[in-house]
Amino acid sequence: MRKFLTLLLVFLIIAGAAAGIFYREKIWNYVNREHFSPEKEQEDIARARTHLSEGRHQQAMEVAERYRQRFDQQDPVAKEWLEIFVQGAVGTRNPGKLLVLYESYPDAVEANEEASLLVSEILINTSRTDDYAKLRDKWQGKASKEERWFVLDADRLLIDGRRVSAVDYLNSRSFEGEADVGRLIRLALLTARENPRMAWEYLAEANTKDPNNTDVRSYRARLLEAVGKSSLALTEYLAAARLDPDNILLRDQLAEFYRRHGRYKLALKVWEDSLDKPASDYIWLKTWFWGRVATPVGFEWDDKVPAEGNLHPLLQYVTNLKPGQFWDEASFEKIPDNNRYLQAQQATYWLRLLQTLEDGNEKKASDMLKYNHFSPISWAPELEILLKRILTYRKDGTLVVENAFAETKSDPKHVEDVAKSLRKQHPFVIQIEELAEAQRTDPNTPIPQGLHDLLTGDNAFAAAFLAGGWLEAALSLPSDSILPDSYPEWVAYGLTQSHRYNQGNLQALEFATKQKPSSTLDLLIGELLISSGSPEAGLEKLGALTNRDDDVGFRASWLVSLLYIEQEQYDDAQKIIKSHPKLAKDVVGRETIARIALLKGELEQADKLYSALETDSWEAKSYLARKAFAEQNWPRARELTETLLREFPNNMLLRKNLNRIIEEQRKQETQP
Question: Which of 318, 273, 327, 315 shows the shortest CA–CA distance to 298?
Answer without folding.
Answer: 273
